[in-house]
Amino acid sequence: MIRFKALISYLLTICTAVSCQDQTEPGKPNIILIMSDDMGYSDIGCYGGEIETPVLDGLAESGVRFTQFYNGARCCPTRASLISGLYPHQTGIGHMTNPSENFEVHDYDVPGYRGELSQQTNTLAEVLKTAGYRTLMTGKWHLGMEHREQWPLQRGFDRFYGILDGASNYFQPVYPRGITLDNDPVDVQDSTYYTTDAFTDYAIRFINEGQEANERSPFFLYLAYTAPHWPLQAPKSVIDKYRERYHQGWEAIRGERYEKMIELGLVDPSWRLSPADGLDWDTLSSEKRADLALRRAIYAAQVDQMDRNIGRLVDYLKTNGLFENTLIVFINDNGACAEGGMLGGGKSEQLETKAGYFLTYGQSWANASNTPYREYKHWVHEGGISSPLIAHWPAGISASLRGTLINEYGFLPDIMATFADISGASYPSARKGKPVPSMVGESFLPLLKGSNAPIHDQPIFWEHEGNKAVRLGNYKAVMKWEENKPEKWELYDLSKDRTELNDLSGKEPDRLASFVAGWEEWARTHQVRPWEEMLARLRANQRRTNE
């Protein structure tokens, strides 16, 4: 009997030790990738904005922020690069995906420009499945929708709820820009429906399905909000918070943000604020100022409501014991959107209704959203390609690093490399018997662990609609494409001049020449074609559509 009791005591000691080890050495983390849509670099509070984003600010305070993380300048090229770990032209989305209204308009009949995600790519979902992850997605897909083989469930996701196209009405999403659940269309009848809320509802539902089934596998959630992409639509109660905030105009907001960004350490005070790129607020009529202040208030409310929904997701994780070992990465897809002209597009009478589609706030406000940088969505100056990126992971980021800034630069393909690194996933070299390009990114896990060394020792590149850029170290060469005008490359030392105001191309022609040569070699080997040629094909497609 004594020996039996001793054996039981010994076994209990072993079990307790194993249990303690399980608690103190967590397994593979859950991974949540959250993407906002068409938001400016400085819109959220922890990046200098006046919009109330306490949840994102809190994640930044107990996580880390990147000051120099780059996107792909436009919605679907960014998503193609993000999901694949490749340059967008390698995926077949060198320009845009084909919209629901016309499945041929962005197919230019060359490999880099087919208007849909190539089947010879790996997706984040497919790669993370090799490490045993459940793969979930809610929100905006925008990677092809003509055939089901292009849809999320056919590209590695176990569950999907959202829109397949690039934008929809927030209150009343309807065919052909309606809602899909897994592979089936959903008829939205709820009078209180709002896409941002619904995307979060289903994100939580999908995670909870695994919890209720007592699944032990980690999950990957890709939550791709459409906020604050047009149309300008938000709940009235949230708009009311900002109704009086923007009557001072965009110049005042830019000045406030610039000073706050310096205080936060996001901007070096030696970087001059780029010149104003909007109309003079004081020259506008009182009616027009009221209209534009309202447009900006609705935009702010869209960001605010997104933050509230991220808070609901965080609360769910905490309540269910999932928060500590979940890596949350928040990023935006491109710079602020200047579409709709200087003063915005769409009918003013549709503001604060459930009607409308193309309702925008315009270039003058986008200039404030991108404080202090130049240009916007579409272009590859810093205002077009700079994203806020927050990484939060209590079990994986040291307490000594929390609240710090990471100043080493990275770009979208690094996310695939990082998630594969963290999860132990394998990146297949072939799909359906055909080769897949190798990952072009680098893992930024060392930066999350406290390294101060750059992760890129080779140049990184951009091309969108003829706009070109290449970065290596502190230097960046960039060119803004203009039809029927000669190419003019610029060169900047971003460590001294990230607002791109002191062009060094005349002073350092040899450096510029080497950068341009590198860009041309990259273009030749990555399915990039001259934009003049692709624009001609686009216009031919549009003419056929209109005939």
From TrEMBL:
Stretches assigned to the Sulfatase N-terminal domain: 29-424
Entries under SUPFAM superfamilies matching the protein: Alkaline phosphatase-like (SSF53649)
Transmembrane spans: none
Domain of life: Bacteria
Gene3D superfamilies per record: 3.30.1120.10, Alkaline Phosphatase, subunit A
Gene Ontology molecular function, alphabetical: arylsulfatase activity
Keyword terms of this UniProt record: Hydrolase
This protein's record includes keyword Iron-sulfur: no
Pfam families xrefs: Sulfatase (PF00884)
UniProt keyword Metal-binding, yes or no: no
Residue runs in coiled coils: none
Family: Belongs to the sulfatase family.
Name of this protein: Arylsulfatase
Source organism of the structure: Parapedobacter pyrenivorans
